[in-house]
């Protein structure tokens, strides 16, 4: 790809910078509950009205349809402006919308895409089950065809944002005789349907981000099957490809800002056993330098991900390389913050120290969600390097 900025790109950067300066929410983002939901939906709506919602999605469905370079410019300026985290819009904007564009039919695109981009609906993702996380294809929640509906029974767990969501990407078994990857279907489930029960789960960071969901004879119209019936594995791989690839480009770019904050923390924090400030500690300085190099590498990888996704439509297994590297770099960065803070880092849940202790706890999420680091290594080994499965 050509990495030089044209006059149009430079003009776009200036336009985006001004727009973000004027329209970015001034108040802090609430971290949970309906207040968080309202904030995230309102910010999504503002982006839609400004013409920036779904920066990479086609214009015909309400997206911006920006060029590759402009997508990157948007993410860079967004991070630079300190604009809010996408929050509970993530499963809709970054996973459901691109999956429906790639695999859905015209009616599904027409009905489900505009409400996502306008911030009118919150989605969640019902893939994992108790006993079926890494081995996703072993899932047991099943659906039988009855007239024009599917009737679903079973349970899903670790469903992010479910307590504030209306719609769900739901992966179920529709053929119990077929090989485990072959008998699955990807459905759109209305969480207000009779028979759905949502039990929120509190995390160790103190919020109610997750839920376990139970389905008791829940009827879902066959029209809500995305892709073909029993071809859900194929559709789910597209969803996970987006989640591992394009969905977290903003996080990758944002990591550079986090590192600069960490360097500032090391400059301010008094040293222990010798150096005046923690930045003068040789081990800390070396780890910060290493992280700077890694963040620069991640930026190049973000360019590569956007470029590949634009060429192929769906990020392939190589998205696992970026996902793995990002989550490990982020975790090391947050671990270093605790070493800089020393025993002060034990003040978890008190909101002090710019939230570094909580950020450390939250940092584990990326090494588990969308497939653990071990699973990403397996994908890289088996599907990219051609190594034997055992
Ligand atoms: C922040 C967060 C958000 C999430 N959001 C959602 C969501 O919205 N929707 C959803 O459906 N799920 C969600 N999940 C669940 C997530 O997808 C699963 O936790 C993940 O796939 C791992 O599954 P598991 O928890 O069952 O662990 P297990 O699969 O039981 O794994 C346990 C351990 O064994 C290792 N392991 C398992 N199999 C292998 C193997 N073959 N080779 C090497 N090591 C292996 C794993 O790496 C892990 O360390 C979320 C998780 C987190 C942390």
Report on this structure:
With 390 residues, the chain is of the alpha+beta class. It folds into 3 domains: 7-85, Butyryl-Coa Dehydrogenase, subunit A, domain 1 (Orthogonal Bundle), CATH 1.10.540.10; 123-230, Butyryl-CoA Dehydrogenase, subunit A, domain 2 (Beta Barrel); 245-384, Butyryl-CoA Dehydrogenase, subunit A, domain 3. 46% of the residues lie in helices and 13% in strands. The chain contains 11 helices and 8 strands. The longest helix has 31 residues, at 282-312. The mean pLDDT is 90. Flavin-adenine dinucleotide (FAD) binds at residues 124-128, 133-134, 158-160, 365, 368-369, 371-372, 374-375, 378. Flavin-adenine dinucleotide is lined by residues 124-128, 133-134, 158-160, 365, 368-369, 371-372, 374-375, 378.
């Amino acid at each position: 790809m050509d990495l030089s900025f044209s006059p149009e790109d430079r003009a776009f950067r200036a336009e985006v910078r001004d727009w973000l300066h004027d329209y970015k929410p001034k108040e802090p983002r609430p971290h949970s509950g309906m207040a968080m939901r309202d904030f995230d939906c309102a910010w999504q709506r503002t982006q839609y009205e400004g013409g920036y919602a779904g920066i990479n999605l086609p214009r015909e469905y309400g997206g911006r349809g920006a060029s590759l370079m402009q997508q990157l410019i948007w993410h860079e300026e967004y991070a630079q402006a300190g604009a809010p985290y996408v929050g509970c819009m993530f499963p809709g904007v970054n996973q459901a919308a691109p999956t429906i564009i790639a695999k859905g039919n015209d009616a599904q695109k027409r009905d489900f895409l505009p409400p996502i981009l306008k911030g009118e609906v919150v989605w969640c993702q019902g893939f994992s089950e108790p006993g079926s996380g890494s081995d996703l294809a072993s899932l047991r929640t099943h659906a039988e065809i009855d007239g024009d509906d599917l009737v679903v029974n079973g349970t899903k767990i670790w469903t992010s944002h479910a307590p504030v969501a209306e719609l769900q990407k739901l992966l179920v078994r529709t053929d119990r005789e077929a090989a485990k990857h072959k008998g699955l279907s990807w459905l759109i489930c209305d969480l207000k349907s009779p028979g759905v029960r949502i039990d929120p789960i509190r995390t160790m960071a103190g919020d109610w981000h997750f839920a376990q969901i139970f389905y008791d004879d829940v009827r879902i119209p066959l029209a809500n099957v995305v892709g073909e019936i029993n071809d859900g594995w194929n559709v789910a791989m597209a969803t996970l490809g987006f989640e591992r690839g394009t969905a977290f480009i903003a996080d990758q770019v944002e990591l550079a800002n986090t590192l600069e904050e960490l360097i500032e923390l090391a400059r301010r924090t008094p040293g222990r056993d010798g150096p005046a400030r923690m930045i003068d500690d040789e081990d800390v300085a070396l780890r910060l330098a290493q992280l700077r190099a890694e963040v620069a590498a991640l930026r190049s990888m973000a360019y590569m991900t956007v470029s590949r996704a634009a060429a192929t439509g769906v990020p392939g297994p190589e998205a696992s390389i970026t996902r793995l590297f990002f989550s490990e770099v982020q975790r090391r960065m947050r671990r270093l913050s605790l070493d800089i803070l020393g025993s002060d880092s034990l003040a978890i849940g008190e909101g002090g120290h710019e939230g570094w202790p909580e950020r450390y706890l939250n940092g584990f999420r990326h090494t588990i969600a969308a497939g653990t680091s071990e699973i990403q290594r397996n994908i890289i080994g088996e599907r990219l390097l051609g190594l034997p499965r055992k």
